Amino acid sequence: MNFHSEPNVFVSHVYLKVADLQRSINFYQQVIGFQVIEQTENKASLSADGRTPLLTIEQPENIHPKQPRTTGLYHFALLLPSRSDLAKVIEHFIKIGYPLQGASDHLVSEALYLADPDGNGIEIYADRPASTWKWNHDEVVMSTERLDIESILAEGDGMSWGGLPAGTLMGHIHLHVSDLQKTEEFYSKGLGFDIVTRYGGQALFISTGRYHHHIGLNTWNGTGAPAPSENSVGLKNYTLVYPNEEARKGTVANLNQIGAAVTQENGQFIVKDPSGNQILLSI
């Protein structure tokens, strides 16, 4: 099943603020493997297939370094089409000597973790077949185990790394939030997501269509963590795609019902979660 197409609701695009646009373009092209499909003096749009934007990076005026212990981006996650694609990425990172922050087997997926030059978190992962995921009623079983790098590399097809494969998607986003209870109401009753895993009273993983998660939410920066300043490096917004206009209108009505302020700009519906993370509601 394709968890990133209708009738599911999923993350399609992430928009980041960076301190040095050219430095970030170099990183996202040479280390991650994106293609630049559009560029202005202070902004660039990045793609895996040369057509579909997955990530936008912008250098605003008077940008400040990433602020610690605030809400915002924990990481965005690029979903590769296959395990052999993950093998190519591992080989690439070994070749260029780029430092990873972690590598984990989550039972439902296998993942690498790193950061861009501004400290924005990135996950690059491949899903295990959904038929192998284990569920306890409505909760998916996930864990954090040692990644078997050797087993992944053995699945390499002998082809060298050539950048992100065309089928790469924005698999999910993981956010720092300030209050899990308010966050759960907003994302479940407002945006229409299902809770699929609770992790230690400090994190929620949510999805539609029984994906392991389209969004992760945590209070690891502290309950009550403040939102970063407007000019801080980090997340500007991310985009959720709804299957049709009727579904989006229903979501806007649900958000209004729980007291979330939805605005409209250039035909786009925009809302902020209780921690100040801005979301574009698209179709």
Q: What are the SSEs and their pairings?
A:
Blueprint: E1 10-17, H1 21-32, E2 35-39, E3 43-47, E4 53-58, E5 72-79, H2 83-96, E6 102-105, E7 109-115, E8 121-127, E9 135-136, E10 139-140, E11 145-146, H3 149-153, E12 169-176, H4 180-190, E13 194-199, E14 203-207, E15 215-218, E16 234-241, H5 245-257, E17 262-265, E18 268-272, E19 278-282
Parallel strand pairs: 1-4, 5-8, 12-15, 16-19
Antiparallel strand pairs: 1-16, 2-3, 3-4, 5-12, 6-7, 6-11, 7-8, 9-10, 13-14, 14-15, 17-18, 18-19
Description:
With 283 residues, the chain is α+β, with helices and mostly antiparallel strands. The protein is built from five helices and 19 strands. The strands form three sheets. A nine-stranded mixed sheet has the order 11-6-7-8-5-12-15-14-13. Strands 2-3-4-1-16-19-18-17 form an eight-stranded mixed sheet, covered by helices on one side. A two-stranded antiparallel sheet has the order 9-10. A hairpin with a 3-residue loop joins strand 6 and strand 7. The two termini are 20 Å apart. Pfam families: Glyoxalase (PF00903).
Order of helices and strands: EHEEEEHEEEEEEHEHEEEEHEEE
How many beta-strand elements? 19
Please state the CA-atom Rg, rounded to the nearest Å. Answer: 18 Å
Number of helices: 5
Q: Write out the CATH superfamily name.
A: 2,3-Dihydroxybiphenyl 1,2-Dioxygenase, domain 1
- Structural category is alpha+beta
Q: Helicity level, as a percent range?
A: 10-25%
Average predicted confidence as pLDDT: 96
For the largest beta sheet, what order do the strands appear in spatially? 11-6-7-8-5-12-15-14-13
Shape: globular
Q: pLDDT under 50 segments (min length 5)?
A: none
The CATH architecture classification is: Roll
How far from one another are the termini?
A: 20 Å
Q: Biggest sheet, open or closed, and with what strands and sense? A: 9 strands, mixed
CATH class: Alpha Beta
Query: What is the CATH fold-level name?
Result: 2,3-Dihydroxybiphenyl 1,2-Dioxygenase, domain 1
Number of self-contained structural domains: 1
Domain VOC: 10-127, 169-283
Keywords: Metal-binding
Protein name: VOC family protein
InterPro entries: Glyas_Bleomycin-R_OHBP_Dase (IPR029068), Glyas_Fos-R_dOase_dom (IPR004360), Glyoxalase_1_CS (IPR018146), VOC_core (IPR037523)
